[in-house]
Amino acid sequence: MTKRSIEKETLSERRDVAPSGRAPSAEALALGLGAQHSAVYEFTPGEEPVRWSTGAAAALGVEPGALPRDVGALRDFWYDRSGAPRAAYLDELAGGAADAPRAKNFVLHTLSADGESLLLEERIMVRDGGDGDLCDCAVVGMLTNHTLRERMNESGDSLRELDPLTGRLSRSALQRTLDRAVAAAKGREDSVGYVVVGVDRIARINDAYGFQGADEAIAGVGRRLCEALRAEDVIGRIGGAKFGILLSECSEAGLARAANRIRDAVRRRMFETSAGRIAATVSVGSVSAPFQVKTADAAMAAGEEALARAKASGSDGYAQFVEDEATRVARQRALALADQLLTALDDGRVEIALQPVVRANDPGRTVFLECLVRMIDRDGVSVPAGDFMPIAEKLGLVRLIDKRVLELAGALLIQDPQLRLSVNLSTQSALDPSWLDAFRRIASDPARPADRMIVEITESTAMDDPERIAALMRSLRTLGAAVAIDDFGAGYTSFSQLRDLRPDIVKIDGSFVQGLPDNPDNQVFVRALLSIARQFEMTTVAEFADDEATAALLLEFGADCLQGSRFGRPQSPDEALNRVACV
């Protein structure tokens, strides 16, 4: 590492007291930093040794002996003339200045030991016992290695685990970190907290300020949340306007205090965006693990339930997870349904129904048919996906279902060279290499079924892990398939994602289409979504076009294709194929 680093900008400055508490333990740091490729240092004002977390040198791309071991060396480690604010701040802290800000963030550009460009985010915090005396405290710095994305895309490094809008962990990376934390807490007979933070009324923000303004506000919320957290806490973006936070060694009372800090950090001042100043609040739901729930999956589900309760009482709310009798009964039913599903998979009773997608300006012409999964129960009754897919996703069975649907669709395409089908892909399968391997096997058939297959990926899945989804989309296109973004608009912050992913098809979320003629707000929103898709030359499909008035309005707005009961309900493959021929 050289001194050619440049301090780009000071992101934030706070003169209020940072969350108090002891310095993070090595164990807590190991849990939080493993997924983030970060390093933590610590020093006591007036004392020379600078202590570093295990693996810090590797995280920063330097030799172990190159890490600075005193404050003077730390100050100069990333220093030149434009780095004066950082150096001055470290000097203040080292000298025990009582009025020094308790937290500052910096973004640093530097070079690694092998000469490659690195982007580092540094957060320096004062950790005291609450009396404000800098002579009896620790200074903790956290350096997160946000190495430039272009180099990461080539090397396949773990920057793919970061959400590109906010720079925080993706949902899948946070889930893996939470899984390790819960396992470690079980071994210690301790607890960790998991918090879900949702931006309130994001739809209204989107309508008033547009996609870009909403994106900037969400990114700003992410930064404010980081300001309210301890160095050892871990944050990720888990949905369009939602964040998940792992709080190490946190009691139920600690969860409530953290929720208050989080809500205050967001509400206390407006967000400056290119669309204007935006006021925002957040609601918070929390759960303790492993006392209330035993796994990371259960913690994430419980956190969502708690957030829903918090939002039910209005904006800026907070709720802790409480498992009541109804929840326990629902869980027992879910387990029974999962057993039925596994048996149906073994018995070949998981089948597909086909629903046509037609041209908006010529509804008699079918463009393709969507494969919709069905389970046939022991009495021969067809069970729709809505009755079992949510349970399958929670219990990790959805990957088995996705592979079964892929196999059935592939067989139909091989049998009928004129057929075009779409299949839905869950988040779990999208991130599972074995699903892509199964797709490659089908694509290798001489009938080239992949050339006539469309893979539908929901907007929430694309936002969960954009880098890996983009790589999957490239692989699918290489094999001949087209890619659709399903439920487009449901995440409210679709503009930047759509621009980066460039799918072949976008399917407007049905919640905006149902009752469209009587909903002026949805009309504005749907018209905007269609306009954005046209700008990127993508084919558009409007779902739930169930009546003539809705279909006529969608055609007027410029939708390319329509899907809904007016144009054909889901039917068995034999029935559907007897009625339509794809064009």
List the helices and strands and how they pair.
Blueprint: E1 6-14, H1 26-33, E2 38-43, E3 51-52, H2 56-60, H3 71-77, H4 84-94, E4 103-111, E5 117-128, E6 137-145, H5 149-155, H6 171-188, E7 192-199, H7 202-228, E8 234-239, E9 242-247, H8 252-267, E10 271-273, E11 276-278, E12 282-289, H9 296-312, E13 318-320, H10 325-347, E14 350-359, E15 362-376, E16 382-384, H11 389-394, H12 398-415, E17 421-425, H13 427-430, H14 433-443, E18 453-458, H15 459-464, H16 466-478, E19 482-488, H17 494-501, E20 505-508, H18 510-513, H19 520-535, E21 539-542, H20 548-557, E22 561-562, H21 573-579
Helix pairs in contact: 3-4, 7-8, 12-14
Please sum up the structure shown:
This protein is of the alpha/beta class. It is built from 21 helices and 22 strands.
The major sheet is characterized as: 8 strands, mixed, barrel
Could you tell me the mean pLDDT? 80
Runs in which pLDDT lies below 50 for 5 or more consecutive residues are 1-36, 129-135, 148-159
**In terms of quaternary structure, what is this?**
single chain
Distance between the termini: 60 Å
If you compute it from the alpha carbons, what radius of gyration comes out, rounded to the nearest whole angstrom? 26 Å
What amount of the residues lies in strands?
15-25%
DSSP E strands, number: 22
Biggest sheet: strand arrangement: 14-15-17-18-19-20-21-22
What's the overall geometry? globular
Q: How much helical structure, as a percent, in the residues?
A: 40-55%
> What is the number of helical segments per DSSP (H or I, 4+ residues)?
21
Strand-pairing-aware structural class:
alpha/beta
